[in-house]
Amino acid sequence: TLGQLRTRLRLQRAQLLIRQGYPMQAVAAKVGLPDNNYFSRWFRQQTGMTPSQFKKSPQQPVRL
């Protein structure tokens, strides 16, 4: 659905920005979720890990 596509694209962009070293607040704002707490909960719900855990995890290719 359109909502699923938007979520997938938002997640891929967030992962890419995190890998590029952007601060979490900037990542959240760039993907349209300016509330850091909401972004962290949303990201964990989508990936099973927090943005910080994702940043520290071994480099895995971000699917675009």
In short:
This protein has four helices and no strands.
Describe the structure in your own words.
It contains four helices and no strands. With 64 residues, it is mostly helical.
Morphology: globular
Query: How much of the sequence is in beta strands?
Result: under 5%
Q: Please work out how many helical segments DSSP would assign.
A: 4
Element order, helices and strands?
HHHH
Number of strands: 0
The structure class reads mainly alpha
Main β sheet profile: none
Topology of this structure?
Blueprint: H1 2-19, H2 24-30, H3 36-47, H4 51-56
Q: Which short descriptors sum up this protein?
A:
64 residues, 4 helices, globular
